[in-house]
Fold:
Amino acid sequence: MLKQMEGSQAVAQAVALARPEVICAYPISPQTHIVEGLGELVKDGRLTPCEFINVESEFAAMSVAIGASAAGARSYTATASQGLLFMAEAVYNASGLGLPIVMTVANRAIGAPINIWNDHSDSMSQRDCGWIQLFAETNQEAVDLHIQAFKLAEELSMPVMVCMDGFILTHAYERVDMPAQAEVDAFLPPYEPRQVLDTAEPVSIGAMVGPEAFMEVRYLAHAKQLMALDVIPRIAGEFQARFGRDSGGLVRSYKTEGAELIVLALGSVLGTLKDTIGTPATGASRPAYGGCPAAGKCRPAAWARRCPLHIPPQRGGRSLGPCQSPGPHGCWLAARQSAPRTGRWPGRCCAR
Amino acid sequence: MLQIRIHGRGGQGVVTAAELLSVAAFEQGCHAQAFPSFGSERTGAPVVAFCRIAEQEIRLREPILAPDVLIVQDATLLHQVDVFQGLQPDGYVLINTRRSFDALGLSDISRKFRHERLTTVPATEIAMKHIGRPLPNAVLLGGFAALSGLITLEAVAHAIGDKFSAKIAAANIAAATEAFAYVRQQMEELAHA
Structure:
């Protein structure tokens, strides 16, 4: 059903359509409206059975989500900025335990100085934590990605972050086609955990292991990330077949054919980029997949002679990079701030 | 694409005005996007909100620097903030005041832009009469419907009805309707002048 609504309220409704059984969150701008919306849905009995647990911090929020997920409940939380950093220790535990928690990150800069506005340094700081990160371009895509995220998390037994630009999306009113509950139920079956904490048959999870076993666990996590490269587009395809919308997936290109300059970007800036790009000489491409070990998957980058990786402006003056590791496409990742004043981008594609 | 910038002060419902306008446009079958400019959302501080309306999907998300429409909810901002910055040559301006553009010290604006697209309406007074609180936001949308004809009073009323409880909605719709009639009368007088 088409509605004109705020991004946060749309995401709250989409999360509710996925029938989470435990929601726990600590409020932080610009995430607040999402959990407020979910709190109201639970309180009014419109989302049931679901327990909304108030916690005293983001660290507690993720810890509760871990406990609930390990006990077999479909679990959800949301945060942003310093909140994500505060929960970081538990974020790693969630992925190490392979728990299919879904978390919205309403992307916001990290202080100091304190800054409530949008950039991606919060989720990028957790790039290697073992979660999958999906980035939304529009509020419609934010809705669709949340529904896909639960399926992805549960199929792979790993947690998924859905990242949406703070304020730019969370506080924007725009048209959203809200899926029907019956359709979402058909797309996303009830969560069937592989293993459940049970007081009748107690087990320890995440207990101490030596380096050998730890390496196996990390290898498995890596293998699952690689499997995600096949699962993400398959789920996007299944979503499109049911809901008729091309949402999610790995990389999406816009006028990249034959381009000399291709901008790789994440999130809502893609809309503005598409409007800016008027000629076929330049193009924008979007990896919807953070961390991206997708050598060979992100094709458009190989076409271009130059390939800047757009990282949204760090308005607090802090830079992510330059990140001295080769990117997934043979490109060197470089933060925008490090671009020299000549206007030339430092990110030169090494693929050719 | 029609780009609207709304200026006001924190507490006057500037963000809600943009939201209501986007819902009204949606009701008319358009694509619409409304978003606030955050940072100074303290009561009384200058606040800006934006709305874009288009036939097709709206992709860009930049703040509106070259508006086609300016709605000024608080006339005390006129000589404090450059509200007219970027206004397009054929732009519409609606200011919440009983005074004329000349009396506001805006004669140069009257000369520079199309005078039939510039008007004022005492939205706060109308709000006090119907709602009992100085909330001019929904009232001004009624005035804007009359000034531009780009959205209908019915769509504005529908958006107000969606947003508020029945009693508050009814008072706001009555106020918006009065503002619509006020602006329409002003425009007729101008046409016959």
